[in-house]
Amino acid sequence: MNPMSGTTTLAQKNKIKQIVSKLPESQLFFTEYSGHATKIAQQAVREGIATVVAIGGDGTVNEVGKGLIGSNTSLGIIPIGSGNGLARHLKIPLKIEKAIQFVMSQPAVLMDVCFLNDIPFFCTAGVGFDAEVAHEFAKQNSRGLKTYARMALKSFRTYKSETFQIDNEDKTVFAITFANATQYGNNAMISPKSKIDDGLIEMVLLKPFPFGAAPIIGVRLFRGTLPNSRYIETQTSENFSLKAKKDFLIHYDGEPHQLSTNELSISIKKQSLKVVGNV
């Protein structure tokens, strides 16, 4: 459990602790630093544990999940983050008691895992405007959709579209998203037709657009009709390659990260993670 996740109150987190403490054959660990959840998950695999449950947001889910790739240990999710993108895609209840019941009762299924260079991601990853917003959002003391929207508006005023070499073709774009799942989180559907068990990645290009089009694009994002926009181009493949004029600032499952390379390779490992959910 990530004690710092999302907008969940201290009382709600204490409630989770009380419920979990009463469950048979369960043990609750609290993450203490970045990467700690991955180490806990890897130890669980070595011990032959059936399921490791990530209690947190998409960042915590990513940390736990990367320690379980290719193993027989399943990933469970109790979503208490800001966006909960993977949980929403998997139709996991957002209410704590129902989420716990879901994890305890549902079978595990296999899902794909995508990689941005050697960094695994389960929902989305990308470069451009979204990465800038994720970088600013990570600096804030408060979480949630309102804070994210405020950072997006702030970044929108100053961000300039960039030119990337995409599979050896130069394209000027506002943002590029690589989607394994349908959404970023909060039901912001960047790639409504994505499936996490089809062995394919959707690359969604958001082209430069006038300021007046921003509200319409935002509405389409949450209504699941973004692919209908003239400013959207979607390509589907098992791999993509990108080059930039400077080292990439990326986001993966909502987490910002500065790379020390201007080259990206995006790939997929088919059905390589067991997860409790509905694909």
From TrEMBL:
<dbReference type="GO" id="GO:0005524">
    <property type="term" value="F:ATP binding"/>
</dbReference>
<keyword id="KW-0444">Lipid biosynthesis</keyword>
<protein>
    <submittedName>
        <fullName>YegS/Rv2252/BmrU family lipid kinase</fullName>
    </submittedName>
</protein>
<dbReference type="GO" id="GO:0008654">
    <property type="term" value="P:phospholipid biosynthetic process"/>
</dbReference>
<keyword id="KW-0594">Phospholipid biosynthesis</keyword>
<dbReference type="GO" id="GO:0005886">
    <property type="term" value="C:plasma membrane"/>
</dbReference>
<dbReference type="InterPro" id="IPR005218">
    <property type="entry name" value="Diacylglycerol/lipid_kinase"/>
</dbReference>
<dbReference type="InterPro" id="IPR017438">
    <property type="entry name" value="ATP-NAD_kinase_N"/>
</dbReference>
<keyword id="KW-0808">Transferase</keyword>
<feature type="domain" description="DAGKc">
    <location>
        <begin position="1"/>
        <end position="120"/>
    </location>
</feature>
<dbReference type="InterPro" id="IPR001206">
    <property type="entry name" value="Diacylglycerol_kinase_cat_dom"/>
</dbReference>
<dbReference type="InterPro" id="IPR016064">
    <property type="entry name" value="NAD/diacylglycerol_kinase_sf"/>
</dbReference>
<keyword id="KW-0460">Magnesium</keyword>
<keyword id="KW-0443">Lipid metabolism</keyword>
<dbReference type="Pfam" id="PF19279">
    <property type="entry name" value="YegS_C"/>
</dbReference>
<keyword id="KW-0479">Metal-binding</keyword>
<dbReference type="InterPro" id="IPR050187">
    <property type="entry name" value="Lipid_Phosphate_FormReg"/>
</dbReference>
<keyword id="KW-1208">Phospholipid metabolism</keyword>
<keyword id="KW-0067">ATP-binding</keyword>
<keyword id="KW-0547">Nucleotide-binding</keyword>
<dbReference type="Pfam" id="PF00781">
    <property type="entry name" value="DAGK_cat"/>
</dbReference>
<dbReference type="InterPro" id="IPR045540">
    <property type="entry name" value="YegS/DAGK_C"/>
</dbReference>
<keyword id="KW-0418">Kinase</keyword>
<dbReference type="GO" id="GO:0016301">
    <property type="term" value="F:kinase activity"/>
</dbReference>
<dbReference type="GO" id="GO:0046872">
    <property type="term" value="F:metal ion binding"/>
</dbReference>
